[in-house]
Amino acid sequence: xxxxxxxxxxxxxxxxxxxxxxxxxxxxxxxxxxxxxxxxxxxxxxxxxxxxxxxxxxxxxxxxxxxxxxxxxxxxxxxxxxxxxxxxxxxxxxxxxxxxxxxxxxxxxxxxxxxxxxxxxxx
Length: 123
Hints:
By secondary structure, this protein is of the alpha+beta class. It contains two helices and seven strands, in the order H-E-E-E-H-E-E-E-E.
């Protein structure tokens, strides 16, 4: 019985890890920033409010959201919000997270300050 409980516990721990926020920290010329699992910098949008993404349509084409898989669960500072189209997106401190299409490689921060409304997401 102890083995079955250990196996079940391990399964749930691994499943939980798979559903955690898919972010990492990378060093850039502007200091440490949050990045997706792909190493690309993440940003926040000043026109969003806590738990609400206001970047849709053409905005989301240029600033792709950090999408959350079904079953993803909030953990620590990270939460999952529901976008206007019903899809799920990761947020940090309630603020939705996005990539910038003009960043080409790990450590790029070309989206910082765009139109005065985009900021680097910090760890």
